[in-house]
Amino acid sequence: NSVGEGCTDLKREYDQCFNRWFAEKFLKGDRSGDPCTEFFKKYQTCVQKAIKEKDIPIEGLEFMGPSKEKADS
Amino acid sequence: MGKYFISETDIKTSWEFVLTAFWQRYPNPYSTHVLTEDVVFREVTSDNCLLSRRLLTKTNRLPRWAECIFPANLSSSVYIIEDSVIDLDNRRFTTLTWNVNHAKLMRVEERCVFFSDQNRPAWTRLIREAWISSGVFGLSRPIQEFGLARLRSNQMKAMKGLEHALSHLQKTSSSHHGDSTEKPKTCSSASTSQKPQQYV
């Protein structure tokens, strides 16, 4: 389920699209466009709104942030 | 100050299949403690890497002694960020997971690296590291011990969840292609070395 209660259907639509693209295109090195952009946009509009409404503190967190402090294994 | 944990496992499934299943892990019978899962960022880079960020909400299950001391934490869930990088050219998948709330009580960061060995393409090696720390004066040691115990339990559930997703994927693909494929296994008994180390 999505953290935004009304976003679950949009999430599932996006996930289905992504999983197909991931296995059939990305993993095979095929970069011929991303068929999931529209699904992702709709899903993100919904979920980002829910994150703000619930005050979930993820704004501005650097990607892979904690790894900067760790030594490489 | 804190605890450090490292373990290695071999998964008897190809790296590509493990990754495909990774995105389809939730929900599974072992993930009842995972309440929500959302992708909040995704990007394919020019050098064939896929970057993703997921936000997960998990239940906050504390031991009885902690519930008495920290009642305010009882009702609120834990928000967790999982950042990941898939390096397709080097066949390496790295995830970094950490909690963004309840961090003063306990902070757990986990790094997992799934990589493929050219000599053993039917296998995937997983190395997991975790760092556990607590900022609570006077209770950091029992909190860290609890954190380590819960992490181990969650890691087992995570592996079972991944195996469940792998089995499900295999059943779906064999019903399309009519092959009989081997059940994916994690051979953790054969090659896991667990070296919990503490550092002060």
From TrEMBL, chain A:
Signal peptide: none annotated. It comes from the Eukaryota. It catalyses: a 1,2-diacyl-sn-glycero-3-phosphate(in) = a 1,2-diacyl-sn-glycero-3-phosphate(out). InterPro entries: MDM35_apoptosis. Keywords: Disulfide bond. GO terms for molecular function: phosphatidic acid transfer activity. One of its GO terms (biological process) is phospholipid translocation. One of its GO terms (cellular component) is nucleus. Belongs to the TRIAP1/MDM35 family. This is TP53-regulated inhibitor of apoptosis 1. It comes from Triplophysa rosa (Cave loach).
Automatic annotation (TrEMBL), chain B:
PROSITE patterns: PRELI_MSF1. Residues 176-185 have a biased composition (Basic and acidic residues). Residues 168-200 are annotated as: Disordered. It holds the Pfam family PRELI. GO terms for cellular component: mitochondrial intermembrane space. It comes from the Eukaryota. Residues 186-200 have a biased composition (Polar residues). Residues 2-174 form the PRELI/MSF1 domain. InterPro entries: PRELI/MSF1_dom, Slowmo/Ups. PANTHER family: MSF1/PX19 RELATED. This is PRELI domain-containing protein 1.
